[in-house]
């Protein structure tokens, strides 16, 4: 047996904060060495932080990364252990995203990334170039200050692996695993047994399984030990990196880290037998045949032994069941951890939320409540960093610290119900009850006086007095009166966030939380510069349907039973007067349901459909319940309002990224914001298709009538009807 103890880790790094990052790296190495592991891998670009973005273009960023690496190599951190560190490296005039593999205070090799992530939220080609010389390792001259410090002039640079005396080890960096021909394929044929994958993978609802199945598939038929390391936390932007560092052996998971956590450092250890890898490979005939005619990959010799022989002092890690969170748990824990990182790193003293008693703002309130519960739980588990941050933010003195989530929420969380004459008693009561369950400092404010003052000013300036539509006003008047209420709430929220800490003799400021969801952003069903405009928004990339499921879950699992009542209430903005024969409802206002919006969003973004393609797809999907004309009207209605309101995405509050069809304009969904909202060419194409389909339907109906009379020349029952359906529309 060749027994090997290996370690990977989740690190909560912060872009450009080199002190924080270096501290976490050293702490992880210390824990790994204490556990007796001889291989340690950290996340991609762990020294700088993954989210540096255009800071990667600054020479300072690269220089500081080398300075941090020198600090590590001058100490005993790498003594007796192979460590892989992620950092940017400049060779000649090109900048590369690299893994620097070090041991015994020397750099063994530098492995540049060959395939860069460049879609969705990723823009690596903006900052780095790909390494293209796969057939050789080249000499890289180390920076002078590094060379002098570690007494090493150069190091092999490029694609290859390290050949130790008893095993072979190689890197496969993040995106490379997901390419059509991943490097581990030929590396395995070259005898590499341990794969190190440093990643910067962000959370997205229902995404984790795809990632884990990739690790499992990489070693299921090829054999090997696959070590995956990821960031965990908010490193300064919209993304939450969701950890879940793990170790897979021959297609079986043997160790898995947490997906959501407040810890800055989490180490995942496994003890494996490399002879099991050799045995599996030797039993697969096709592997043997392909290995005998493989393309040779260059290697670097390292004169060290990493494995131990058979001994009962070292037990082997057994396969474990994969731990998945439900989507409701993901909504609870992901944004909660993101909010905690943002709060503790921003210098703010807490959060302020305009709480309307509706589903969206109640979801945000529940997420903050969940955050407070996680903080108290982590302190009880002995996390000194979380305790120190909580004491500082909550202004605890005399050795006190949070032991109750409601008491902690009272110190850091303000909720404000901003009612008008259009608000109902039901939403006011729901907001008050939820605030009591969470423990927030709750205010109930009427803003009618401010609205009246503005309308009086408008009447003085223009001589006109606008009316609501239910009172005989026009659409323009109706919309203007709703916008006044919404925008006053935003102004009041920011005023309270800046002054309430002063009122209560607290330093600093409060962060205003937004509460618009991804579907409202897609449709533009929000007022520009209303309460959707905030400092940050934890639900801006989550669908209404997922939020309603979350509310049901949170009512029980977070201990906030009033959320069940919130979920059962029909969504309404409460910006128009309530009458005996009229009550404003979101889906009526929008002219579409939230369920339909999710369908439109996925077709538009994930399946890259324009109006015509969306129409064709929906004719198949909805053909059994809608005519082509009805489908066409729905598609046109969506694209009309999507394009009219797209400009609102340019000022969308920075939101936690959670959904694959997010319309967020900053980096994920890059499109124009000035459209011809009539879509003349595309809508004409749809109209033409509708005419063709209607003509086919008429002909089909006539054929069916003939069949019923038994006069069909091909005999009865030979008409073209969708299988299993008596409805002619089902086949459209």
TrEMBL record:
<dbReference type="Pfam" id="PF00795">
    <property type="entry name" value="CN_hydrolase"/>
</dbReference>
<dbReference type="GO" id="GO:0009435">
    <property type="term" value="P:NAD+ biosynthetic process"/>
</dbReference>
<dbReference type="GO" id="GO:0004359">
    <property type="term" value="F:glutaminase activity"/>
</dbReference>
<comment type="pathway">
    <text>Cofactor biosynthesis; NAD(+) biosynthesis; NAD(+) from deamido-NAD(+) (L-Gln route): step 1/1.</text>
</comment>
<dbReference type="GO" id="GO:0005524">
    <property type="term" value="F:ATP binding"/>
</dbReference>
<dbReference type="Pfam" id="PF02540">
    <property type="entry name" value="NAD_synthase"/>
</dbReference>
<dbReference type="InterPro" id="IPR014729">
    <property type="entry name" value="Rossmann-like_a/b/a_fold"/>
</dbReference>
<keyword id="KW-0436">Ligase</keyword>
<keyword id="KW-0520">NAD</keyword>
<keyword id="KW-0067">ATP-binding</keyword>
<feature type="domain" description="CN hydrolase">
    <location>
        <begin position="4"/>
        <end position="274"/>
    </location>
</feature>
<dbReference type="GO" id="GO:0003952">
    <property type="term" value="F:NAD+ synthase (glutamine-hydrolyzing) activity"/>
</dbReference>
<dbReference type="GO" id="GO:0005737">
    <property type="term" value="C:cytoplasm"/>
</dbReference>
<dbReference type="InterPro" id="IPR003010">
    <property type="entry name" value="C-N_Hydrolase"/>
</dbReference>
<dbReference type="InterPro" id="IPR014445">
    <property type="entry name" value="Gln-dep_NAD_synthase"/>
</dbReference>
<dbReference type="InterPro" id="IPR022310">
    <property type="entry name" value="NAD/GMP_synthase"/>
</dbReference>
<comment type="similarity">
    <text>In the C-terminal section; belongs to the NAD synthetase family.</text>
</comment>
<dbReference type="InterPro" id="IPR003694">
    <property type="entry name" value="NAD_synthase"/>
</dbReference>
<protein>
    <recommendedName>
        <fullName>Glutamine-dependent NAD(+) synthetase</fullName>
        <ecNumber>6.3.5.1</ecNumber>
    </recommendedName>
</protein>
<dbReference type="InterPro" id="IPR036526">
    <property type="entry name" value="C-N_Hydrolase_sf"/>
</dbReference>
<keyword id="KW-0547">Nucleotide-binding</keyword>
């Amino acid at each position: 047996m060749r027994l090997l103890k290996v370690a990977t880790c989740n690190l909560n790094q912060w872009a450009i904060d080199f002190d924080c990052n270096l501290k976490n790296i050293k702490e992880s190495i210390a824990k790994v060495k204490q556990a007796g592991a001889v291989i340690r891998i950290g996340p991609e670009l762990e020294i700088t932080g993954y989210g540096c973005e255009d800071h990667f273009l600054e020479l300072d960023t690269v220089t500081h990364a080398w300075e941090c690496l020198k600090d590590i190599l001058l100490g005993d951190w790498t003594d007796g252990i192979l460590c892989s560190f992620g950092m940017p490296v400049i060779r000649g005039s090109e900048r590369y995203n690299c893994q620097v593999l070090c041991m015994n205070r020397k750099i063994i090799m530098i492995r540049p990334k060959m395939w860069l992530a460049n879609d969705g939220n990723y823009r690596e080609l903006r900052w780095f170039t790909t390494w293209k010389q796969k057939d050789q390792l080249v000499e890289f001259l180390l920076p002078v200050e590094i060379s002098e410090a570690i007494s090493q002039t150069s190091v092999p640079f490029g694609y290859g692996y390290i050949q130790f005396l008893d095993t072979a080890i190689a890197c496969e960096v993040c995106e490379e695993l997901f390419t059509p021909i991943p490097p581990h394929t030929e590396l395995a044929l070259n005898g590499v047994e341990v794969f190190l994958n440093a990643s910067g993978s962000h959370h997205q609802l229902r995404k984790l399984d795809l990632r884990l199945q990739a690790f499992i598939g990489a070693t299921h038929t090829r054999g090997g030990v696959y070590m995956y390391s990821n960031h965990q936390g908010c490193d300064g932007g919209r993304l939450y990196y969701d950890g879940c560092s793990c170790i897979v052996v021959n297609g079986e998971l043997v160790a898995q880290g947490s997906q959501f956590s407040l810890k800055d450092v989490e180490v995942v250890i496994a003890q494996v037998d490399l002879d099991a890898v050799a045995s599996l490979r030797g039993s697969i005939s096709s592997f043997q045949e392909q290995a005998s005619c493989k393309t040779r990959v260059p290697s670097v010799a390292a004169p060290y032994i990493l494995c131990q022989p058979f001994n009962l002092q070292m037990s082997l890690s057994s396969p474990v069941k994969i731990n998945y969170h439900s989507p409701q748990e993901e909504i609870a824990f992901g944004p909660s951890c993101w909010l905690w990182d943002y709060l503790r790193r921003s210098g703010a003293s807490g959060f302020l939320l305009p709480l309307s008693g509706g589903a969206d703002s109640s979801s945000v309130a529940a997420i903050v409540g969940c955050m407070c519960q996680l903080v108290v739980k982590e302190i009880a588990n002995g996390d000194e960093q979380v305790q120190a941050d909580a004491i500082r933010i909550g202004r605890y003195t005399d050795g006190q610290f949070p032991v109750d989530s409601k008491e902690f929420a009272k110190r850091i969380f303000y909720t404000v119900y901003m009612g008008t004459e259009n608000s109902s008693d039901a939403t006011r009561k729901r907001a008050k009850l939820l605030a009591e369950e969470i423990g927030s400092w709750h205010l109930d404010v009427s803003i009618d006086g401010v609205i009246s003052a503005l309308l009086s000013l408008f009447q003085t300036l223009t001589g006109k007095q606008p009316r609501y539509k239910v009172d005989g006003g026009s659409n323009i008047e109706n919309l203007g009166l709703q916008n006044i209420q919404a925008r006053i709430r935003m102004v009041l929220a920011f005023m309270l966030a800046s002054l309430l800490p002063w009122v209560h003799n607290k330093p600093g400021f409060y962060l205003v939380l937004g509460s618009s969801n991804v579907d409202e952003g897609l449709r533009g069903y929000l007022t520009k510069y209303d309460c959707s405009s905030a400092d940050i928004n934890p639900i801006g990339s989550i669908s209404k349907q997922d939020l309603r499921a979350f509310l049901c879950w949170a009512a029980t699992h977070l201990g906030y039973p009033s959320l069940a009542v919130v979920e059962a209430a029909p969504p309404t903005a409460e910006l128009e007067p309530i009458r005996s024969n009229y009550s404003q409802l979101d889906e009526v206002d929008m002219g579409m349901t939230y369920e339909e919006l999710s369908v439109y969003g996925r077709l538009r973004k994930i399946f890259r459909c324009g109006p015509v393609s969306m129409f064709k797809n929906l004719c198949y999907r909805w053909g059994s319940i809608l005519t082509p004309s009805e489908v066409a009207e729905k598609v046109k209605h969506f694209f009309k309002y999507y394009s009219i309101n797209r400009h609102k995405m340019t000022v969308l509050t920075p939101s936690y990224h959670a959904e694959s069809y997010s319309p967020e304009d900053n980096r994920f969904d890059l499109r124009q914001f000035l459209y011809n909202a009539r879509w003349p060419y595309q809508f004409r194409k749809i109209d033409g298709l509708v005419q063709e389909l209607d003509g086919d339907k008429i002909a089909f109906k006539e054929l069916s009538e003939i069949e019923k009379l038994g006069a069909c020349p091909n005999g009865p029952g030979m008409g073209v009807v969708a299988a299993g359906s008596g409805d002619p529309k089902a086949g459209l």
